[in-house]
C-alpha cells in the first residue's frame, strides 16, 4: 500500500477514464518490475563484472536504483516519473547496444519501451517514439558505415545485416504501436461512451427523483383537496358505476361508511324516479370530459335532497373514472320555490287591486255622488242598499288582500300595520260601520 500511494499519490480522486487506467498500469509496472529487475540484475551484474565491464555494472545498478527512488518519491509529479523511466531505459538500451555490440538486447529494451510509451503516454508521444527509435538506429548505422569510433557493432554486423535488422525492428515497432494506439483509442471511446451514458442515466435518475418528489407533493395536495374537501366528493368507475373512492364529507352527508360506498354504485344514492334521467345523462355525456347537472340524491336514511353535480373524467389506477363533486342545494331550491309562491300571491293581489277593488269602489263613489245631489230629499232606501252591498264587497276584497299579504309576510299583519299608523285599533272580525238612513 505504501508503494502504491507513493507511485500514484498525486493521482487520487480521478475518474475512471483512460488516464486513470494508464496511471494504474504504470503503478503495476513499477510494483512488479522493480523487484523482478533486481532479481534479474544479480546474474547480469556478476557476468559483466567477471567479464571486466565495470562501467556497465555501474550503469545497470544506477539505472535500477534511480528509477526506484524517483518512482517512490511522493514529491515528484507522475508525468516526470514516467518521463524519467523512459529516458533512463533509453540510455541503458543505447549503452548496452553500443558497448556490447548486441542488437538483440538493445532491441528488447527499445521494443519494451515502445510498448510502455504506447500504453502510458498520449498518442503524439507514442508516434514520436517511432521517430526516436528510427534516429537511434540511424545513428548506429552511421557508426557502422563511417566507423566513427571503435564499437563492437562494427565487427559484429555488416552494413546490409544491420540495415535489415533495423528495418525489421522498426516495422515491428510501428505495427505494435499502431495496434496498441488503436486498442487504446477504442478503449477511450468505449469509456467515454460509457461515461456519457452514465451521466445521462444519472441525469435521468435525478429527473425521476424530482418527478417522484413532485408526484408525492401532488398526491399530498390531492389528499388535502379530495379527502379534506368540505363538499362531498367521490370517484366512480365509468363502466361499472361502482364507487372507487369517497371523501369524509360524503361519508358524513350520506351516512354510509367507506366500505358501504365501495360496495355500491352511484345509482344506489338516487331515488328511483331520477334513475332514467341519470342513465340518459351518462349516455349523452359518455365522451365529454366534464359536465354538470342538477338532480336528487337519497341518503342512507331515505331522505331526498337536491344536489348540483359536477363531473370530470380522470384516469384512476389504470381505468377510466369520473371525479364527482356534489353540492346540496335543497335550501336554495326551497328558497327559490318560496319566492315563486310569493310572486304568485303578489300577482293575485295586484289582480285583485286592479280589477276587483275598483268595481265596488266605483259604485260607492257613484252612490255617494247621488246622495250628495239629493241632500234636501229623503235618501232612497234602495240606494242605501246598493251602498251597503258595495261596502261589504269592498270589505271582503280588502280582507282577501290582507290574507294574501300575511301568507307572503307571515310575521306581519297588514291590517294592524295600517291601523296602527292611523292610531286605530280594529279586528279583522269587526264589521264595517253600517250607513244609516238620513
TrEMBL record:
NCBIfam families: sensory_box. Keywords: Membrane, Transmembrane, Transmembrane helix. InterPro entries: HisK_dim/P_sf, MASE11, PAS, PAS-like_dom_sf. GO terms for molecular function: phosphorelay sensor kinase activity. The chain crosses the membrane at residues 29-48, 54-72, 84-113, 125-149, 161-183. The keyword S-adenosyl-L-methionine does not apply. Residues 412-438 are annotated as: Disordered. SUPFAM superfamilies: Homodimeric domain of signal transducing histidine kinase (SSF47384), PYP-like sensor domain (PAS domain) (SSF55785). Residues 218-263 form the PAS domain. This is PAS domain S-box protein. Pfam families: MASE11, PAS_9. The lineage of its organism: Bacteria, Pseudomonadati, Bacteroidota, Sphingobacteriia, Sphingobacteriales.
Amino acid at each position: 500500500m505504501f508503494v502504491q500511494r507513493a507511485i500514484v499519490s498525486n493521482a487520487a480522486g480521478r475518474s475512471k477514464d483512460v488516464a486513470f487506467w494508464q496511471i494504474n498500469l504504470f503503478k503495476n509496472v513499477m510494483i512488479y518490475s522493480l523487484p523482478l529487475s533486481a532479481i534479474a540484475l544479480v546474474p547480469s551484474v556478476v557476468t559483466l563484472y567477471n567479464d571486466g565491464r565495470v562501467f556497465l555494472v555501474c550503469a545497470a545498478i544506477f539505472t535500477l536504483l534511480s528509477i526506484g527512488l524517483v518512482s517512490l518519491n511522493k514529491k515528484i509529479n507522475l508525468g516526470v516519473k514516467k518521463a524519467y523511466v523512459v529516458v533512463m531505459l533509453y540510455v541503458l538500451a543505447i549503452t548496452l547496444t553500443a558497448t556490447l555490440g548486441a542488437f538483440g538486447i538493445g532491441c528488447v529494451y527499445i521494443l519494451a519501451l515502445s510498448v510502455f510509451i504506447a500504453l502510458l503516454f498520449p498518442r503524439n508521444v507514442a508516434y514520436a517514439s517511432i521517430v526516436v527509435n528510427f534516429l537511434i538506429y540511424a545513428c548506429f548505422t552511421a557508426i557502422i558505415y563511417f566507423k566513427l569510433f571503435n564499437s563492437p557493432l562494427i565487427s559484429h554486423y555488416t552494413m546490409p545485416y544491420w540495415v535489415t535488422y533495423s528495418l525489421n525492428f522498426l516495422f515491428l515497432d510501428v505495427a505494435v504501436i499502431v495496434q496498441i494506439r488503436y486498442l487504446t483509442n477504442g478503449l477511450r471511446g468505449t469509456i467515454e461512451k460509457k461515461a456519457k451514458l452514465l451521466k445521462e442515466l444519472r441525469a435521468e435518475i435525478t429527473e425521476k427523483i424530482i418527478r417522484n418528489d413532485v408526484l408525492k407533493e401532488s398526491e399530498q395536495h390531492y389528499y388535502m383537496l379530495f379527502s379534506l374537501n368540505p363538499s362531498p366528493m367521490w370517484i366512480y368507475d365509468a363502466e361499472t358505476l361502482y364507487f372507487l373512492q369517497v371523501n369524509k364529507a360524503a361519508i358524513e352527508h350520506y351516512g354510509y361508511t367507506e366500505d358501504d360506498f365501495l360496495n355500491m354504485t352511484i345509482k344506489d344514492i338516487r331515488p328511483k324516479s331520477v334513475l332514467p334521467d341519470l342513465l340518459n345523462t351518462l349516455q349523452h355525456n359518455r365522451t365529454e370530459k366534464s359536465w354538470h347537472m342538477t338532480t336528487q340524491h337519497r341518503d342512507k336514511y331515505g331522505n331526498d335532497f337536491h344536489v348540483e353535480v359536477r363531473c370530470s373524467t380522470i384516469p384512476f389506477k389504470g381505468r377510466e373514472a369520473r371525479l364527482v363533486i356534489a353540492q346540496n342545494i335543497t335550501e336554495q331550491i326551497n328558497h327559490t320555490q318560496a319566492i315563486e309562491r310569493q310572486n304568485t300571491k303578489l300577482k293575485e293581489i295586484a289582480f285583485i287591486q286592479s280589477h276587483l277593488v275598483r268595481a265596488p269602489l266605483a259604485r260607492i263613489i257613484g252612490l255617494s255622488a247621488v246622495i250628495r245631489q239629493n241632500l234636501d230629499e229623503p235618501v232612497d232606501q234602495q240606494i242605501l242598499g246598493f251602498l251597503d252591498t258595495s261596502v261589504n264587497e269592498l270589505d271582503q276584497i280588502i280582507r282577501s288582500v290582507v290574507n294574501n299579504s300575511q301568507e307572503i309576510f307571515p310575521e306581519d299583519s297588514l291590517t294592524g300595520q295600517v291601523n296602527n299608523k292611523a292610531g286605530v285599533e280594529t279586528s279583522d272580525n269587526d264589521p264595517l260601520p253600517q250607513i244609516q238612513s238620513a
